From TrEMBL:
UniProt xrefs under NCBIfam families: 2A0114
GO molecular function annotations of the record: transmembrane transporter activity
Primary localization class, coarse: membrane
UniProt-recorded name of the protein: MFS transporter
Residue spans crossing the bilayer: 17-34, 54-75, 87-105, 150-173, 179-198, 255-280, 292-316, 328-347, 353-373
Annotated Major facilitator superfamily (MFS) profile domain residues: 21-391
Amino acid sequence: MSSLSHAASSAEKRTNARYWIVVMLFIVTSFNYGDRATLSIAGSEMAKDIGLDPVGMGYVFSAFSWAYVIGQIPGGWLLDRFGSKRVYFWSIFIWSVFTLLQGFVDIFSGFGIIVALFTLRFLVGLAESPSFPGNSRIVAAWFPAQERGTAVAIFNSAQYFATVIFAPIMGWLTHEVGWSHVFFFMGGLGIIISFIWLKVIHEPNNHPGVNKKELEYIAEGGALINMDQKDTKAKVPFSVKWGQIKQLLGSRMMIGVYIGQYCINALTYFFITWFPVYLVQARGMSILKAGFVASVPAVCGFIGGVLGGIISDWLMRRTGSLNIARKTPIVLGMLLSMVMVFCNYVNVEWMIIGFMALAFFGKGIGALGWAVMADTAPKEISGLSGGLFNM
């Protein structure tokens, strides 16, 4: 019987549950970036309605960014302490509730509207802070090194896909039924997605759809399949982590990674916050047209993002060097993204969109920083490492 059992086990086909995990990461990240873009799409009409000037809008935009930065280290610690599935669920649910509430800010008047909007955007930023460190932890747990670049590229490319899908929808909602419905739609959708997350996401060892062959395959490739097991999760208090934070900040390699990610994020936030506003205010487009035009660079960014991961994993298989496989697409992609500077010197609409599309394509190719984090972050503080990286 034992020989028959062994033969059956040998003949068992390896499952691919990890692919469904990255699909869920893609969906959640698409929604995440769609949620971040709500104010950039609805902002022009909202500003007219509530009497907010560009300076005031700048302060409101900054609320999310400040909170997002402040929340990175605590968010990373929460991920390490309580696990990716649980923390990420609450992250999605809470940011969606605060997004929905932004649709009601016009019940206030005068300065109260600005305070309410600033506060809600700040709370959304705090709630979203564990999202990308959580993505990185889940990829590190589920994917071997030779597939990690593509997995990261897939979830990271969701930021471009989000613009393709959500910018036209939010532009249409703003144009047809009013800016408040953008927040109602995205907030309600997020609450639904948070409960789907609970059903789909599991740790590798506890996933009902994974078999022994897949577990062995991903573990042999360097996946940290026990990352969130109760007996292996870090139980130390947050105060003890400061020594590890100093160690990370003292690493020359990690400082280089952090600087590179900052440059990539600067491009990302331009496209998801100010780009639609730029098209409306500087180039005179309607809200509806800007929503559709903004999707063109996003499509190119999506293609570049997926291509960057494929190239990285191909280089990994050909050279066996993570150094070459990760650095090459990052350097080439960021150099290509510099073409957006030429938008300052042209007034032809199609050329502006073309330069922006090419820049976003390059940015997509170079957006492999999370693959580097999944490759190098210490297991016991992977969330914390990701939080520092994402600041």
